[in-house]
Amino acid sequence: MKILMLSWEYPPKVIGGLARAVADLSQALVEEGHEVSVVTGDWPESEQTEYVHGVRVYRVNQFFPKPMGFLDEVHFMNYHLVQKGAELLSHVDFDLIHAHDWLVAPSAKVLKHAFQKPLVCTIHATEWGRNNGLHNDLQRHISDLEWWLTYESYRVICCSEYMRAELRRIFQVPEDKLSVIPNGVRAEDFTNVHEDLDTWRNNWARPDEEIVLYVGRHVYEKGIDLLLSAAPKVLWHRPQTKFIIAGKGPCLDELKKQAWDLGLGEKTHFPGFIDDRSRNSLYRLAEAAVFPSRYEPFGIVALEAMAGQAPVIVSDVGGFGETVRHGENGLTFYAGNANSLADNILHLLGDKAFARSLNERAALDLKEKFDWNQIARQTVESFKQVALKPHEHKEFYERYQLTSTFPERGERVRESSNHGRW
Fold this sequence. Notes:
The protein is of the alpha/beta class. It contains 16 helices and 14 strands.
Protein backbone atom coordinates (compact mmCIF):
# COMPACT_ATOMS: atom_id res chain seq x y z
CA MET A 1 0.00 0.00 0.00
CA LYS A 2 0.96 3.64 -0.48
CA ILE A 3 0.17 5.67 2.62
CA LEU A 4 0.25 9.43 3.15
CA MET A 5 0.57 10.31 6.84
CA LEU A 6 -0.09 13.71 8.41
CA SER A 7 1.41 14.50 11.81
CA TRP A 8 2.32 17.75 13.53
CA GLU A 9 5.44 16.21 15.11
CA TYR A 10 8.02 13.71 13.95
CA PRO A 11 11.50 13.07 15.38
CA PRO A 12 13.65 14.96 16.11
CA LYS A 13 10.64 17.15 16.94
CA VAL A 14 9.30 15.27 19.96
CA ILE A 15 6.74 17.04 22.16
CA GLY A 16 4.95 13.96 23.45
CA GLY A 17 4.49 10.28 22.68
CA LEU A 18 2.78 10.95 19.34
CA ALA A 19 6.03 11.68 17.47
CA ARG A 20 7.65 8.42 18.52
CA ALA A 21 4.51 6.40 17.76
CA VAL A 22 4.18 7.88 14.25
CA ALA A 23 7.87 7.33 13.51
CA ASP A 24 7.90 3.73 14.73
CA LEU A 25 4.66 2.84 12.95
CA SER A 26 5.76 4.39 9.65
CA GLN A 27 9.12 2.61 9.83
CA ALA A 28 7.43 -0.72 10.61
CA LEU A 29 5.04 -0.26 7.69
CA VAL A 30 8.02 0.24 5.37
CA GLU A 31 9.65 -2.89 6.79
CA GLU A 32 6.44 -4.75 5.95
CA GLY A 33 6.78 -3.70 2.30
CA HIS A 34 4.58 -0.59 2.13
CA GLU A 35 5.42 2.93 0.95
CA VAL A 36 4.99 5.68 3.52
CA SER A 37 5.29 9.44 3.12
CA VAL A 38 4.92 11.66 6.19
CA VAL A 39 4.09 15.35 5.93
CA THR A 40 4.83 17.13 9.18
CA GLY A 41 5.90 20.41 10.79
CA ASP A 42 9.45 21.64 10.55
CA TRP A 43 12.14 21.64 13.21
CA PRO A 44 15.41 23.56 13.53
CA GLU A 45 18.39 21.98 11.79
CA SER A 46 16.23 19.37 10.04
CA GLU A 47 16.17 18.94 6.27
CA GLN A 48 12.96 19.93 4.51
CA THR A 49 12.90 16.51 2.83
CA GLU A 50 14.41 13.47 4.48
CA TYR A 51 14.60 9.73 3.91
CA VAL A 52 14.52 8.15 7.36
CA HIS A 53 14.64 4.35 7.67
CA GLY A 54 12.84 4.06 4.34
CA VAL A 55 10.19 6.67 5.24
CA ARG A 56 9.91 9.80 3.12
CA VAL A 57 9.55 12.73 5.51
CA TYR A 58 8.48 16.16 4.22
CA ARG A 59 8.71 19.06 6.67
CA VAL A 60 6.68 22.22 6.08
CA ASN A 61 7.16 25.69 7.52
CA GLN A 62 4.71 26.14 10.38
CA PHE A 63 6.06 29.48 11.61
CA PHE A 64 5.29 31.63 8.56
CA PRO A 65 3.38 33.85 8.60
CA LYS A 66 4.51 34.48 12.15
CA PRO A 67 1.75 33.07 14.36
CA MET A 68 0.08 35.22 17.00
CA GLY A 69 -0.52 32.21 19.23
CA PHE A 70 -0.70 28.42 19.38
CA LEU A 71 -3.88 28.08 17.33
CA ASP A 72 -2.46 30.36 14.63
CA GLU A 73 0.62 28.15 14.50
CA VAL A 74 -1.55 25.06 14.08
CA HIS A 75 -3.69 26.57 11.34
CA PHE A 76 -0.74 28.05 9.43
CA MET A 77 0.90 24.63 9.56
CA ASN A 78 -2.24 23.09 8.09
CA TYR A 79 -2.14 25.49 5.14
CA HIS A 80 1.36 24.26 4.37
CA LEU A 81 0.35 20.64 4.96
CA VAL A 82 -2.38 21.03 2.36
CA GLN A 83 0.09 22.55 -0.12
CA LYS A 84 2.65 19.76 0.28
CA GLY A 85 0.00 17.04 0.52
CA ALA A 86 -1.65 18.24 -2.70
CA GLU A 87 1.73 18.27 -4.44
CA LEU A 88 2.37 14.65 -3.43
CA LEU A 89 -1.16 13.43 -4.18
CA SER A 90 -0.93 14.97 -7.66
CA HIS A 91 2.04 12.74 -8.49
CA VAL A 92 1.56 9.62 -6.36
CA ASP A 93 -1.53 7.39 -6.30
CA PHE A 94 -1.78 6.97 -2.54
CA ASP A 95 -4.24 4.38 -1.27
CA LEU A 96 -5.28 6.47 1.70
CA ILE A 97 -4.49 9.33 4.07
CA HIS A 98 -3.67 8.58 7.71
CA ALA A 99 -4.06 11.57 10.06
CA HIS A 100 -2.77 11.69 13.62
CA ASP A 101 -4.78 13.76 16.12
CA TRP A 102 -6.69 17.02 15.85
CA LEU A 103 -3.72 19.19 14.93
CA VAL A 104 -3.89 17.99 11.32
CA ALA A 105 -7.69 17.68 11.07
CA PRO A 106 -8.21 20.67 8.69
CA SER A 107 -5.61 19.52 6.15
CA ALA A 108 -6.79 15.89 6.38
CA LYS A 109 -10.36 16.92 5.62
CA VAL A 110 -9.39 19.12 2.67
CA LEU A 111 -7.08 16.54 1.08
CA LYS A 112 -9.63 13.77 1.57
CA HIS A 113 -12.33 15.61 -0.38
CA ALA A 114 -10.08 17.29 -2.94
CA PHE A 115 -8.46 14.03 -4.03
CA GLN A 116 -11.26 11.62 -3.06
CA LYS A 117 -9.02 9.48 -0.91
CA PRO A 118 -10.10 7.36 2.07
CA LEU A 119 -9.22 9.00 5.38
CA VAL A 120 -8.16 7.06 8.47
CA CYS A 121 -7.32 8.81 11.71
CA THR A 122 -5.62 7.79 14.92
CA ILE A 123 -6.80 9.55 18.07
CA HIS A 124 -3.96 9.35 20.56
CA ALA A 125 -5.75 11.27 23.34
CA THR A 126 -8.69 13.63 23.80
CA GLU A 127 -8.88 17.13 25.19
CA TRP A 128 -11.78 16.05 27.37
CA GLY A 129 -9.71 13.26 28.89
CA ARG A 130 -6.60 15.38 29.40
CA ASN A 131 -8.56 17.98 31.37
CA ASN A 132 -11.28 15.82 32.92
CA GLY A 133 -13.86 17.81 31.00
CA LEU A 134 -13.94 20.99 28.92
CA HIS A 135 -13.50 24.16 30.94
CA ASN A 136 -12.76 26.98 28.48
CA ASP A 137 -13.21 28.01 24.86
CA LEU A 138 -9.81 26.70 23.74
CA GLN A 139 -10.51 23.25 25.13
CA ARG A 140 -13.95 23.21 23.53
CA HIS A 141 -12.45 24.27 20.19
CA ILE A 142 -9.85 21.50 20.30
CA SER A 143 -12.50 18.95 21.26
CA ASP A 144 -14.64 20.08 18.31
CA LEU A 145 -11.68 19.53 15.97
CA GLU A 146 -11.17 16.05 17.42
CA TRP A 147 -14.83 15.22 16.84
CA TRP A 148 -14.62 16.66 13.33
CA LEU A 149 -11.67 14.40 12.49
CA THR A 150 -13.47 11.28 13.73
CA TYR A 151 -16.57 12.31 11.77
CA GLU A 152 -14.66 12.79 8.52
CA SER A 153 -12.63 9.59 8.88
CA TYR A 154 -13.71 6.28 7.38
CA ARG A 155 -11.91 4.44 10.17
CA VAL A 156 -10.86 5.61 13.64
CA ILE A 157 -7.93 3.87 15.30
CA CYS A 158 -7.28 4.17 19.02
CA CYS A 159 -4.64 2.55 21.20
CA SER A 160 -6.65 0.86 23.96
CA GLU A 161 -10.06 -0.43 24.96
CA TYR A 162 -10.13 2.46 27.41
CA MET A 163 -9.85 4.91 24.52
CA ARG A 164 -12.47 3.05 22.53
CA ALA A 165 -14.92 3.60 25.39
CA GLU A 166 -13.89 7.25 25.69
CA LEU A 167 -14.45 7.94 21.98
CA ARG A 168 -17.82 6.19 22.10
CA ARG A 169 -18.84 8.21 25.16
CA ILE A 170 -17.55 11.66 24.18
CA PHE A 171 -17.94 11.70 20.39
CA GLN A 172 -20.52 8.91 19.85
CA VAL A 173 -18.21 7.29 17.31
CA PRO A 174 -20.07 4.25 15.92
CA GLU A 175 -18.71 0.94 17.17
CA ASP A 176 -18.21 -0.46 13.66
CA LYS A 177 -15.99 2.49 12.78
CA LEU A 178 -13.43 1.87 15.55
CA SER A 179 -10.28 -0.24 15.62
CA VAL A 180 -8.22 -0.84 18.77
CA ILE A 181 -4.54 -1.27 17.91
CA PRO A 182 -1.93 -0.82 20.67
CA ASN A 183 1.24 1.19 20.41
CA GLY A 184 4.55 -0.63 20.63
CA VAL A 185 8.19 -0.11 21.40
CA ARG A 186 11.48 -0.91 19.70
CA ALA A 187 13.48 -2.49 22.50
CA GLU A 188 16.69 -2.10 20.52
CA ASP A 189 16.35 1.69 20.76
CA PHE A 190 16.95 1.43 24.51
CA THR A 191 20.18 -0.57 24.43
CA ASN A 192 22.40 2.45 23.74
CA VAL A 193 23.70 3.41 27.19
CA HIS A 194 26.82 5.10 28.52
CA GLU A 195 29.79 2.74 28.50
CA ASP A 196 30.88 3.10 32.11
CA LEU A 197 27.52 3.25 33.85
CA ASP A 198 28.95 3.10 37.37
CA THR A 199 31.10 6.18 36.80
CA TRP A 200 28.37 8.00 34.87
CA ARG A 201 25.91 7.23 37.69
CA ASN A 202 27.97 9.41 40.06
CA ASN A 203 26.67 12.46 38.17
CA TRP A 204 23.15 11.63 39.34
CA ALA A 205 23.29 9.90 42.71
CA ARG A 206 25.68 8.75 45.41
CA PRO A 207 26.79 5.09 45.28
CA ASP A 208 24.51 4.19 48.22
CA GLU A 209 21.41 5.93 46.84
CA GLU A 210 18.56 4.09 45.11
CA ILE A 211 17.14 5.86 42.07
CA VAL A 212 13.40 6.37 41.60
CA LEU A 213 12.91 7.82 38.13
CA TYR A 214 10.24 9.75 36.25
CA VAL A 215 10.68 10.71 32.59
CA GLY A 216 8.06 12.74 30.73
CA ARG A 217 6.24 16.03 30.33
CA HIS A 218 5.66 18.19 33.38
CA VAL A 219 1.92 18.68 33.04
CA TYR A 220 -0.90 18.18 35.52
CA GLU A 221 -2.32 15.00 34.00
CA LYS A 222 1.03 13.19 34.44
CA GLY A 223 0.63 13.35 38.24
CA ILE A 224 4.22 14.24 39.15
CA ASP A 225 2.94 16.11 42.19
CA LEU A 226 1.68 12.75 43.52
CA LEU A 227 5.18 11.30 43.26
CA LEU A 228 6.56 14.22 45.26
CA SER A 229 3.79 13.78 47.82
CA ALA A 230 4.76 10.12 48.18
CA ALA A 231 8.46 10.92 48.63
CA PRO A 232 8.44 11.78 52.37
CA LYS A 233 6.98 8.38 53.32
CA VAL A 234 9.49 6.59 51.07
CA LEU A 235 12.38 8.56 52.55
CA TRP A 236 11.19 7.87 56.11
CA HIS A 237 11.61 4.14 55.48
CA ARG A 238 14.46 4.27 52.95
CA PRO A 239 16.41 7.53 53.40
CA GLN A 240 18.89 6.43 50.73
CA THR A 241 16.29 7.00 47.97
CA LYS A 242 16.98 9.61 45.26
CA PHE A 243 14.14 10.95 43.09
CA ILE A 244 15.11 12.01 39.56
CA ILE A 245 12.32 13.80 37.67
CA ALA A 246 13.39 14.34 34.07
CA GLY A 247 11.59 16.31 31.39
CA LYS A 248 10.08 19.74 31.05
CA GLY A 249 6.74 21.46 30.84
CA PRO A 250 4.57 24.25 32.24
CA CYS A 251 4.40 22.73 35.75
CA LEU A 252 8.18 22.57 36.29
CA ASP A 253 8.50 25.63 38.55
CA GLU A 254 5.44 24.63 40.56
CA LEU A 255 6.87 21.13 41.07
CA LYS A 256 10.22 22.49 42.19
CA LYS A 257 8.42 24.67 44.74
CA GLN A 258 6.45 21.66 45.98
CA ALA A 259 9.68 19.68 46.45
CA TRP A 260 11.17 22.61 48.39
CA ASP A 261 8.07 22.99 50.57
CA LEU A 262 8.13 19.26 51.37
CA GLY A 263 11.74 19.55 52.49
CA LEU A 264 12.98 17.08 49.90
CA GLY A 265 16.11 19.12 49.26
CA GLU A 266 18.94 17.17 47.66
CA LYS A 267 16.76 14.05 47.49
CA THR A 268 15.09 15.34 44.33
CA HIS A 269 16.75 16.34 41.08
CA PHE A 270 15.08 18.06 38.12
CA PRO A 271 17.54 17.73 35.21
CA GLY A 272 15.14 19.05 32.54
CA PHE A 273 15.18 17.51 29.09
CA ILE A 274 17.55 14.55 28.72
CA ASP A 275 18.82 12.96 25.51
CA ASP A 276 17.98 9.38 24.54
CA ARG A 277 21.27 7.93 25.70
CA SER A 278 20.93 9.49 29.14
CA ARG A 279 17.31 8.34 29.35
CA ASN A 280 18.31 4.78 28.47
CA SER A 281 21.13 4.85 31.01
CA LEU A 282 18.86 6.12 33.78
CA TYR A 283 16.31 3.40 33.04
CA ARG A 284 19.08 0.82 33.31
CA LEU A 285 20.16 2.25 36.67
CA ALA A 286 16.75 2.91 38.22
CA GLU A 287 15.37 0.73 40.99
CA ALA A 288 11.91 1.93 39.94
CA ALA A 289 10.45 3.96 37.05
CA VAL A 290 7.26 5.67 38.21
CA PHE A 291 4.46 7.09 36.04
CA PRO A 292 1.68 8.42 38.31
CA SER A 293 -0.65 9.72 35.57
CA ARG A 294 -4.17 10.95 36.20
CA TYR A 295 -4.99 10.35 32.51
CA GLU A 296 -3.20 7.97 30.16
CA PRO A 297 -4.84 6.74 26.93
CA PHE A 298 -2.17 4.07 26.46
CA GLY A 299 1.03 4.70 28.39
CA ILE A 300 3.82 4.02 25.91
CA VAL A 301 6.27 5.41 28.45
CA ALA A 302 5.73 2.30 30.57
CA LEU A 303 6.79 0.12 27.63
CA GLU A 304 9.85 2.30 27.12
CA ALA A 305 10.85 1.86 30.76
CA MET A 306 10.37 -1.90 30.40
CA ALA A 307 12.57 -1.86 27.31
CA GLY A 308 15.16 0.03 29.34
CA GLN A 309 15.04 -2.75 31.97
CA ALA A 310 13.53 -0.63 34.73
CA PRO A 311 10.83 -2.08 37.02
CA VAL A 312 7.72 0.03 36.48
CA ILE A 313 5.04 1.44 38.78
CA VAL A 314 2.01 3.08 37.17
CA SER A 315 -1.37 4.42 38.25
CA ASP A 316 -4.37 2.22 37.55
CA VAL A 317 -5.88 4.55 34.94
CA GLY A 318 -6.65 4.30 31.26
CA GLY A 319 -4.46 2.22 29.02
CA PHE A 320 -1.99 1.46 31.79
CA GLY A 321 -4.41 -1.24 32.92
CA GLU A 322 -3.97 -2.97 29.55
CA THR A 323 -0.15 -2.88 29.50
CA VAL A 324 0.87 -3.28 33.15
CA ARG A 325 -0.47 -6.22 35.17
CA HIS A 326 0.02 -5.76 38.88
CA GLY A 327 2.54 -8.18 40.31
CA GLU A 328 3.35 -9.74 36.93
CA ASN A 329 5.17 -7.27 34.68
CA GLY A 330 4.98 -4.21 36.94
CA LEU A 331 3.06 -2.67 39.80
CA THR A 332 -0.02 -0.45 39.81
CA PHE A 333 -1.26 1.91 42.53
CA TYR A 334 -4.58 3.61 43.21
CA ALA A 335 -4.64 6.69 40.99
CA GLY A 336 -4.41 9.93 42.93
CA ASN A 337 -3.38 8.14 46.13
CA ALA A 338 0.15 9.16 47.19
CA ASN A 339 0.14 6.69 50.09
CA SER A 340 -0.60 3.78 47.73
CA LEU A 341 2.19 4.98 45.43
CA ALA A 342 4.67 5.18 48.33
CA ASP A 343 3.81 1.61 49.40
CA ASN A 344 4.46 0.28 45.90
CA ILE A 345 7.80 2.10 45.67
CA LEU A 346 8.84 0.67 49.04
CA HIS A 347 7.82 -2.81 47.88
CA LEU A 348 10.13 -2.62 44.86
CA LEU A 349 13.03 -1.07 46.75
CA GLY A 350 12.79 -3.71 49.44
CA ASP A 351 12.60 -6.80 47.20
CA LYS A 352 15.20 -6.81 44.42
CA ALA A 353 14.46 -10.42 43.42
CA PHE A 354 10.79 -9.53 42.90
CA ALA A 355 11.82 -6.50 40.83
CA ARG A 356 13.96 -8.74 38.60
CA SER A 357 11.04 -11.12 38.08
CA LEU A 358 8.89 -8.21 36.92
CA ASN A 359 11.56 -7.24 34.39
CA GLU A 360 11.75 -10.76 33.00
CA ARG A 361 8.01 -10.94 32.41
CA ALA A 362 7.98 -7.41 30.96
CA ALA A 363 10.69 -8.29 28.43
CA LEU A 364 8.62 -11.26 27.26
CA ASP A 365 5.51 -9.10 26.88
CA LEU A 366 7.38 -6.60 24.72
CA LYS A 367 8.22 -9.37 22.25
CA GLU A 368 4.83 -11.05 22.28
CA LYS A 369 2.39 -8.11 22.40
CA PHE A 370 4.08 -4.83 21.59
CA ASP A 371 6.28 -5.51 18.55
CA TRP A 372 5.86 -2.72 15.99
CA ASN A 373 5.94 -5.02 12.98
CA GLN A 374 3.03 -7.00 14.38
CA ILE A 375 1.23 -3.74 15.10
CA ALA A 376 1.92 -2.53 11.54
CA ARG A 377 0.25 -5.65 10.16
CA GLN A 378 -2.81 -5.01 12.31
CA THR A 379 -2.89 -1.41 11.07
CA VAL A 380 -2.76 -2.52 7.44
CA GLU A 381 -5.73 -4.83 8.02
CA SER A 382 -7.64 -1.81 9.32
CA PHE A 383 -6.51 0.21 6.28
CA LYS A 384 -7.76 -2.50 3.92
CA GLN A 385 -11.28 -2.12 5.26
CA VAL A 386 -11.51 1.35 3.72
CA ALA A 387 -8.97 1.31 0.88
CA LEU A 388 -11.25 -0.45 -1.60
CA LYS A 389 -12.53 1.27 -4.73
CA PRO A 390 -16.06 2.66 -4.83
CA HIS A 391 -17.49 -0.15 -6.96
CA GLU A 392 -16.28 -2.66 -4.38
CA HIS A 393 -18.47 -1.04 -1.74
CA LYS A 394 -21.78 -2.01 -3.30
CA GLU A 395 -23.07 -3.64 -0.11
CA PHE A 396 -22.02 -0.61 1.89
CA TYR A 397 -23.78 1.83 -0.40
CA GLU A 398 -26.96 -0.22 -0.27
CA ARG A 399 -26.83 -0.07 3.53
CA TYR A 400 -25.95 3.61 4.00
CA GLN A 401 -27.44 6.55 2.16
CA LEU A 402 -24.68 9.12 1.86
CA THR A 403 -25.68 12.64 2.68
CA SER A 404 -24.13 16.08 2.49
CA THR A 405 -25.94 17.06 5.71
CA PHE A 406 -23.52 17.94 8.48
CA PRO A 407 -25.22 16.88 11.75
CA GLU A 408 -24.82 18.68 15.00
CA ARG A 409 -22.02 17.26 17.13
CA GLY A 410 -23.27 14.22 19.01
CA GLU A 411 -26.43 13.82 16.90
CA ARG A 412 -27.05 10.09 16.52
CA VAL A 413 -27.80 9.60 12.81
CA ARG A 414 -27.11 6.50 10.80
CA GLU A 415 -25.25 8.39 8.09
CA SER A 416 -22.72 9.84 10.57
CA SER A 417 -20.95 6.49 10.77
CA ASN A 418 -19.61 6.80 7.24
CA HIS A 419 -20.31 10.32 6.05
CA GLY A 420 -18.55 11.37 2.86
CA ARG A 421 -16.97 8.01 2.09
CA TRP A 422 -16.16 8.94 -1.52
